[in-house]
Fold this sequence. Notes:
Layout: H1 6-12, H2 22-31, E1 40-47, E2 59-63, E3 74-77, H3 80-89, E4 93-95, H4 97-104, E5 112-115, H5 120-123, H6 127-130, H7 148-156, E6 159-163, E7 169-176, H8 181-197, E8 208-215, E9 221-223
Parallel strand pairs: 3-4, 3-5
Antiparallel strand pairs: 1-7, 1-8, 2-6, 8-9
Amino acid sequence: MTKVGKKYKEAKKLLQENSYELEQAVKLVQEVSYSKFDWSIEIAVKTFANPKYNDQNIRSTVVLPHGTGKSQKIAALVTDENIEDAKKAGADIAWYETVLNDIKEGKIDFDVLLTTPDLMRDLAPIAKILWPKGLMPSPKAGTVTANIKQAVEEIKKWRLEFKLDKTGNIHAIIGKVSFDTDKLIENAQSFIKTLEDNKPSGVKGKLIKKIVLSPSMGPGVTVTY
């Protein structure tokens, strides 16, 4: 059994119900965060989807109205004609040879990798490096696109990727403990709506089974759904 500390136990006492409406759950998750640091708040969604079946997999993106409070470093694997647009849009790294060679050498100093459809073949030899780190570009995630400029701008505006894990759950950061409560609520609502809008055709009936909000340091708060 995992041992929990005194602060965790004290925070847990604030939760008197099994679940709460979203607005109250957001307020409580801010209250139960017992760290002095401004940690992130995560949303964990247990779904009825089975990742073993292709028609039940989920992978998409959402632009949170108020961001996550965390900046992302973007690398763009592009040819000469797209370099200037990518950099002007805010890409931290934009090149072809430099990006490709750095990845081959294990120098991965970025959070998101973008590329164009015609260059996907060039990533095949290094896919085994990118896949385990969750950095392999994908059309579903919007990281393989002909419009690199637009993709960079959206990510800089806090576009967030989410996907189903092996246990049928989805995890994402929806903000910081210090965020205004109303902004966290709007971020959570936007995420849930986008998830519902991306319900796979293979899932019959409800998609969402359970939603839990939790701070990096503190107990989770179950949302009535």
